[in-house]
Amino acid sequence: MFLLKLLLVPIGLFGIYITIIFVDIAQDERDANAVPMSFGSFKIIKNSMIDPETILSSINHGDQTVFNFETGFPPNDLPFVTSVEWRQEDFLKLATSIFHAAWNESINDWTLYRMDFYTRCDDLLGFSEGEAYFLQETSDRKKYSGRGIEMEPEYGYVMWGGDTYRRRPLFGWKVINLNEMTITAEEALRRAEARGGLEFRQSIENECDIDLQLWPEVYGRYAWRVHYWDDNIYTNRPLEFWIPTK
Q1: 32 and 169 in contact (C-beta within 8 Å)?
Q2: 3-state DSSP of 139-204
Q3: How far apart are CA 47 and CA 149, in angstroms?
Q4: Which of 48, 84, 119, 237 could make a disulfide contact with 67, Cβ separation 3.0–4.6 Å?
Q5: Average pLDDT of the chain to the nearest whole number
């Protein structure tokens, strides 16, 4: 009986240890769901005006003086500047330049987590705005840092958010590997058009918007979500297509 009691002590302690581990894991998973994927959740937000007609040429020549970041969101009443028809590549070049100007870091040291692009239904030659979100594991390996970049060239501004930390989920995140992708945003849109997007647009006389989103962690698939939105809020008939990234 005495030996049995002695054995029960380490067994009980081991049980407590295992319980603590599982509680910690559950806490990590719950906290990890609070992913900062809207600009309102970032601790630091800054914006800068840009010239949409010259910005791409300037950054292609290595000019980092094109940004003048100020704390906070841009004004709500910014005027329309000019129409743009940018590709995924153009937005990612701009995001790379913003990364260097804002943090003096390489974008390649961060993991691309989500991409969004937008266009009107009457102009499918490119996109008018884009967003990109990034993650990086911190030194304690239980947290990650989140950053976001929003680019609105038609209204002449860009914005970044950062210095926000969350717990890291046990098995990490589903992320985007650009080197493994063969279908760009513009190609995904072209394929969605062929599958019924064109017919949908024509049926409502191009009175709609199109959002493209690549977010593997939330949607559970490595595919573009191409979403058509009818402008008429009373007869809104959204239509979506899933286009694999390769």
Answers
A1: yes
A2: CCCCEEEEEEEEEEHHHCEEEEEEEEEEECCCCCCCCECHHHCCCCHHHHHHHHHHHHHHHHHHHC
A3: 10
A4: 48
A5: 84
